Amino acid sequence: MKLYSYFRSSAAYRVRIALNLKGIEYETIPVHLTKDGGQQRSEAYRAVNPAGLVPALVDGDVAIGQSLAILEYLEETHPEPPLLPADPAGRARVRSIALAIACDLHPLNNLRVLQHLKHGLGLDEAAKDAWYRHWINVGLGAVEAMLAGHPQTGRYCHGDQVTLADVLLVPQVYNARRYNCDISAMPTVTRIAQACEQLDAFVRAEPARQPDAEN
Amino acid sequence: MKLYSYFRSSAAYRVRIALNLKGIEYETIPVHLTKDGGQQRSEAYRAVNPAGLVPALVDGDVAIGQSLAILEYLEETHPEPPLLPADPAGRARVRSIALAIACDLHPLNNLRVLQHLKHGLGLDEAAKDAWYRHWINVGLGAVEAMLAGHPQTGRYCHGDQVTLADVLLVPQVYNARRYNCDISAMPTVTRIAQACEQLDAFVRAEPARQPDAEN
User: Fold this and answer.
1) Domain A2-81: which CATH class?
2) Chain B residues within an 8 Å CB radius of A157
3) How far is Cα of residue A76 from the mean position of the Cα atoms in its chain?
4) CATH fold for the domain made of A88-201
5) Complex ipTM tops 0.85
6) Which end of chain A has fewer CB atoms at under 10 Å, N or C?
7) Mind listing the pLDDT tens digit for each residue in A107-150?
């Protein structure tokens, strides 16, 4: 498989974790999000992913350009080890946590939105950073509320096996730290992210360890 | 089943369409997003959905508070008629279109973000409307690029059977029209939405036909 990736993209980071967890070998094809006016906007890349967003996974003649669609595809085509529980209620809980990050939090803070706040609305750095931290607080706060004290929360988000919820959580916590957000009010989120970060599949997916990593 | 819903919430609208398509009877429990400072923020509602967002579906002792997690749950527990194709590549394409709306477009324009633009950033109505139209253009433009000329696009987003992609598309087109966005540059999106809007399951899910509808 080929993964079109940018080392700092948290959506790409999710997919790298899942590929590692499932033991799938892949080739990284770097797509630089700020060089050349954004390589993801190039005609060549849009032929792979018409939406012009990173990541995209190519598996033979199948090209998928949405990280959660990629994760579900990997789950269906490479079911072991499973990243969703077997019961529909458990699957719904795991997907709800994953989507609370993928839909309700991450899209508000991704690069193109930050660029629009700056260039479209004329916000300065301080106002942009305040926006970022606001949605981290709201979004990770919601995830904390879903996890804290819930009987199915275990070592990881759902019991003691890694699931898609954890795969989404770790890159989001990485983003929060990168922007110096205070997440001390989210002890369950912090504890689970730290537990995941001890696992080799998560370590190898870290932005700093990617072939296109920069300082 | 019980659906905690707000007539104008496009995430609730998605779930209503899917429940209708699958012929599942449900009770609507209205949650007013602007009355009482937002009923979705109440302690009573947060006991159902800790994230404090609409919709939530309650099926016996299972409560799910993310629209896409609800749709996948309904697909797993009520597989007929299927809203995902049988093949992993087709499922990935349908999910990619659905997620292009659920992740890349809708979260940027939902009520709490518009409220934050106004009260947090002090944007006036014109600037708020420009934000809305910007992301409609970017987001539905990406969906148009995924659909137009693709060999698997048919009467609906994926062939001639309704899928989750259509379930997501129609409420988003409703939103675009409500904010007077010009989507004439998206003929495939427009054509497919119009085809869906002829189906009874979509008609009955329309905001204006809900028990909590207002002018």
Assistant:
1) alpha beta
2) none
3) 19
4) Glutathione S-transferase Yfyf (Class Pi); Chain A, domain 2 (1.20.1050)
5) yes
6) C
7) 999 989 999 999 999 999 999 999 999 999 999 999 999 999 99
